[in-house]
Amino acid sequence: xxxxxxxxxxxxxxxxxxxxxxxxxxxxxxxxxxxxxxxxxxxxxxxxxxxxxxxxxxxxxxxxxxxxxxxxxxxxxxxxxxxxxxxxxxxxxxxxxxxxxxxxxxxxxxxxxxxxxxxxxxxxxxxxxxxxxxxxxxxxxxxxxxxxxxxxxxxxxxxxxxxxxxxxxxxxxxxxxxxxxxxxxxxxxxxxxxxxxxxxxxxxxxxxxxxxxxxxxxxxxxxxxxxxxxxxxxxxxxxxxxxxxxxxxxxxxxxxxxxxxxxxxxxxxxxxxxxxxxxxxxxxxxxxxxxxxxxxxxxxxxxxxxxxxxxxxxxxxxxxxxxxxxxxxxxxxxxxxxxxxxxxxxxxxxxxxxxxxxxxxxxxxxxx
Amino acid sequence: xxxxxxxxxxxxxxxxxxxxxxxxxxxxxxxxxxxxxxxxxxxxxxxxxxxxxxxxxxxxxxxxxxxxxxxxxxxxxxxxxxxxxxxxxxxxxxxxxxxxxxxxxxxxxxxxxxxxxxxxxxxxxxxxxxxxxxxxxxxxxxxxxxxxxxxxxxxxxxxxxxxxxxxxxxxxxxxxxxxxxxxxxxxxxxxxxxxxxxxxxxxxxxxxxxxxxxxxxxxxxxxxxxxxxxxxxxxxxxxxxxxxxxxxxxxxxxxxxx
Lengths: 368, 258
Prior knowledge:
The structure holds two protein chains of two kinds. Chain A is mainly β. Chain A has a single domain, classed as Porin, CATH 2.40.160.10. Helices cover 7% and strands 59% of the residues of chain A. Chain A contains four helices and 18 strands. Chain A has helices spanning 4-15, 17-21, 279-282, 284-287; strands at residues 24-38, 41-55, 62-73, 76-90, 93-100, 131-141, 144-151, 164-173, 176-187, 197-210, 213-224, 230-244, 249-260, 297-308, 311-320, 325-336, 340-351, 355-367. In chain A, strand 15 (311-320) and strand 16 form a beta hairpin. By secondary structure, chain B is mainly beta. Chain B has a single domain, classed as Lipoprotein localisation LolA/LolB/LppX (outer membrane lipoprotein receptor (LolB), chain A, Clam). Chain B has four helices and 13 strands. Chain B has a 13-stranded antiparallel sheet with strand order 6-5-4-3-2-1-13-12-11-10-9-8-7. The radius of gyration of chain B is 17 Å and the shape is globular.
């Protein structure tokens, strides 16, 4: 992808020369500092992340997107491209070619039926990986749509049997949102001793209103093609909110639980999805959110309150029963004047009732 | 009776002025009933479509954050739909889509659309004094409330009708009671208070500035104050408005955000 951004700009300037002259730039710069203690070893950490997006004034017939990303970690700066695609549109729908976001969310913190990594604000982490490939999106009326995705894990060595495929039929409606997903994607070995395989998933996600609650969930069939292992996933989630303190602040609570019914699989296989692209954010999963997916069930709860309009303070609670792992991750996020966000994150995790891991991070983000 | 006080959503987020919109004609002598006054407001406020550029300034205990947005609104057969896109750096590209009583939110980074749970509609939108429910409220307030003309009163040098609205039987509007100050000459809502069932004052909306557009007087700056919070207020200010805007087919729909 070394020169691909230049090629992209050149191609797009030929397609629509006026777009470059009215191009705008936006993005964010963030830095984090903190420490983490694992296996009785205390480590300090300092990292940075920058994202720069070029906003083009594009004609209605084509959407371009170009987002650069750079990460500072271990004294090295690692540049990359988060998203880079062209999306021609027509009455037939739209077709996206390049590195692009593919998210099939329905409100869950952990979406095991997503094409991507499916982690949304879990223990302070949202993993949004650009996926290299092709996506066709067709509207079929009343907001309903069909998506077809093909992704390439390696851009310079595309082999058909290494490609990933997915489809989504989405049926939104008044007070509800239902999707039927089918995914077939190659897997990398997640840990030593694992073998490469391919994961097939077929199922549905749903969300709807039930009085003062929002209910959501998913159900699916998981199968590893080579090993033949299979299992059924069931997930149920609920969210609600209320005013407390005489109405002076808001409390929001979200809780969800999933289980692999036959106890043959666990969600950590998703860490091995070969999605291509997005290598920077991809690296976050080993140390972070995916560390709690080793069991065949997981309970997650997130509760936070908003003492003022600009601040959220809360904690995530997670428990999995197979390995008896659990923990909490308190956080505090506040939006400051001048497009600056300040964030404190911490976590305390009990691993099998024996090892204790904890950490604390302070982060600042500037949006421009 | 077909009074359609536009929702706060329409007036404050997607146009900031629809509910409090006004007529160019002066009121005839003060013989109007409360219903007739509200009808008059409605007659003059009805906007078929509009494009609005606006800003929302949120203040909380000395801290101030500004959100900028552009919005499209459309009213058709009594149903109001709207699409609003935020332009400020922190929220750039975030979109809200209102379709009838439903609201959807579009996240630009994920390029995905999420339905907003019903319970969240009672909470502040984008961290402001306005709730989603304020925005989504039914257009037909006359189906939800009965009106009573209390008195006339001078408010900031303008003569106003003071109208008290009470939730109609078997209806459950966002607020059980409202008190509305309507300019007797321009038929602009200059002030509005929202009460709970226990008659506790919950919120107050004040029109700070009105302007004339094509013979219509419309509020272009309004301030909402959540009375349950300490020292907060949200100012909604219109920077540009195009009335009877020709909205492209399909723009205000789930399709356009996919």
